[in-house]
Amino acid sequence: MSKVIDPNKYPYLTRVKRLQYDYPALKSFLDKLLNTRDAGRVVVEEEFHKRHGRTPGRCCVLEYRNTDVKPTVFDSAEHVRDYFLKAPATEGHQRRLFVLEDLELEYVEVLGHFLGVDPLVFAEQMNTWNYCDVHSIGHRPLPSLTRPQKSFTTRYYELRTLPGLHQGLDVLGCYMTFAVNRRLYQPWRDIDGPSIKSDRRVGFIRRCYSFWTSDIPDENTSWNSLLLVDPPIDSIPTNIRSASDRNSLLLQNPQEHLILQDPRTYRSRNELWNAKAGSGVHHLEATTHSSSPYHGGVPAAAPLSLDSTTQLSRLERRESYRYRNRSSVFDEILFSWTHIAEPDLITATKKHPVNATYFMTKHVGYHWVNLLELISFALAQCEYFADDNEASVDSHLSAHRWKSQLRKVTRTAKDINYFRRQMVHFENVLNLNLERLGINLDQPEDPKLLPTTLRDAQKDFLTIAPRLRSYRERVDNLSGIADQLSSVHAAFKGIDDGAFGLRLSIFAAIVFPVTLVATVLSMGDEFLPGKSRFWIFFATSIPLSLLFGGFLHYGEPLFKLFSRGDKIDQK
User: GO: which molecular function terms (predicted)?
Assistant: First the structure.
């Protein structure tokens, strides 16, 4: 499809295009959404048609009734259009949540047109940038214009465990998730010390979800809401061919699936930056990749209880769905509202549509907890690295060993600086989440006045934010460790070189008199070459020089050994 939009076929996107002058963020959104010739997007669409017989992404609607939730999963965007023609958004006493996975063009047009969705919500869902350059335009509304009960976007990081130490992601490679609205897939930089090393490598994906609802209703009015989520990274598994294979392989660790990868490994960060910016210098293709959810995935967003008959019956129903893909947010939301949700939560959601994000908000909170645990482990690695390297400084380092250790310290300094930059990004993202959810760390709102979801989100993020801030301060303090270690190694090497030079001076001072004596002795007639006493020159000067040289070189360790033995005997 070209950038020229047919107003008869795409009335919603036509209206959005007219709004991009007043809201510049919509321009970036339309450029990406309408770029159907993108190389990675073509690969994704072809593979989905081949494997699933449909376009990328899925859509469903959850209808909140008296005590339960009725789900309806749509096969295509045309199915969604037919649904709206039968049950329009403006008619009837309805309370519905539409869940959209990925941002496929036809789904965006249908949902946006029939629901009247704020297009800035789609624009926010499309971008997870840490910061914007000249061409990329983000949308960050003022806190005074933010209404969490109306719409918000929350960001989080999904961690993936890689199969081994040598099967990670290259830091100068370009990897993305297999989706239309693809996310950057980055390696986590571990700091390995001599005593403690990572048992597995980790990758992380910057993700987000967005919520929008119609005008905030009264108790007796209807509402329609939209929840935008990302597709799972393993949406196209390569080792599953049938339903029986899925049941037997979903619990395996790791799983093979497709991702988008640029086959080229870039020579510098400048080339990699240009590739990520979409300047056309890279070519994405489908590649088989192995990974698994970090720590086995996110737990179910429900307290575990075995002391009641009701809870046991729900656990039995959940057990029958244990082979579901728990990496799929779409499937987890569908499962949670139909098998976990309490009647009280359903009633609260009918009154406040923002409660429809209850399970999604819990899902995001668990991802932030996993990130905090990974940061804590990385901090321990940094501190142990400093201890091990300070303890392993040798006063008799060879040039090869000294250079090897210094190169290792230099690489670790780069990893620590990368870690410090990531911590700044993490804190900025968390602060953005607090703004979107209307949470003020210094003056939180009264929990009694908030809906259930916002109340729990405030409690969770008020706990997560101080922990992340304390970790960031510790990382800032660690940033000088590598420089200090380099200085220590250089100082020890300088001391060792100075001591060696001193030994050479002493050696020369001893050898010179010995050779002088030998020379004097050789001045007589009997000491001349060919005479009977000529051997005395070699018998005196050379052995004495070797003896004194050996004492200078090995005398200090022997002196320390004997002095240590004296101290032990005294004790």
Answer: metal ion transmembrane transporter activity
Residue 377: CB atoms within 10 Å: 15
H, E, C per residue of 117-166: CCHHHHHHHHCCCCCCCCCCCCCCCCHHHCCCCCEEEEEEEEEEECCCCC
54, containing H or E segment? none
CA distance 344 to 363: 20
35: three-class secondary structure by DSSP = coil
Answer yes or no: is pLDDT of 126 > 70.
yes
Closest listed residue to residue 333, CA positions, set 50, 14, 103, 62 = 62
Q: Is the pLDDT of residue 281 over 50?
A: no
Question: Distance between CA 410 and CA 269 in Å, rounded?
Answer: 18
What per-residue confidence (pLDDT) applies to 372? 95
Distance CA 183, CA 205 (A): 7
Which of 284, 278, 281 lies closest to 258, judged by CA?
284
Is residue 368 helix, strand or coil? helix
In the predicted structure, residue 570 carries a pLDDT above the cut 50: no
Answer yes or no: are the C-beta atoms of 541 and 518 closer than 8 Å: yes
What DSSP string runs through 461-500?
HHHHHHHHHHHHHHHHHHTTHHHHHHHHHHHHHHHHHHHH
Between strands 95-101 and 223-229, the pairing is parallel
SS (H, E, C) 302-336: CCCCCCCHHHHHHHHHHHCCCCCCCCCHHHHHHHH
The mean-pLDDT minimum among 97-101, 191-195, 265-269, 420-424 falls in 191-195
Q: How far apart are CA 202 and CA 207, in angstroms?
A: 16
Rounded Cα gap, residues 311 and 297, in angstroms: 22
> Which helix (H) or strand (E) is 218 found in, with range?
none
Q: Do the Cβ atoms of 488 and 393 come closer than 8 Å?
A: yes
Q: Name the one residue in this structure whose structure tokens are 């890689």.
A: 162
Give the pLDDT score at 447. 86
Q: What is the pTM of this model?
A: 0.81
> Cβ neighbours of residue 48 under 8 Å, at least 6 residues apart?
54, 55, 56, 236
What is the overall mean pLDDT for the chain? 80
- Read off the pLDDT of residues 213-260 as tens digits, 9 standing for 90 and up: 987 666 667 899 999 999 999 889 887 655 545 544 555 556 788 999
In this prediction, residue 424 has a pLDDT band, given cuts at 50, 70 and 90, of very high
Q: What is the Cα–Cα distance from 376 to 368, expressed in whole angstroms?
A: 12
Residue whose C-alpha is closest to residue 208's, from 336, 338, 368: 368
User: 454-478, pLDDT tens digit by residue?
Assistant: 999 999 999 999 999 999 988 887 7
List C-alpha distances in Å: 49 to 58, 148, 246: 13, 37, 19
**C-alpha neighbours within 13 Å on the C-beta side of residue 388:** 17
CB 223 within 8 A of CB 217: yes
d(C-alpha 352, C-alpha 451), whole Å? 7
Nearest to 323 by CA among 334, 312, 331: 331
| CA contacts within 13 A on the Cβ side of 57 | 21
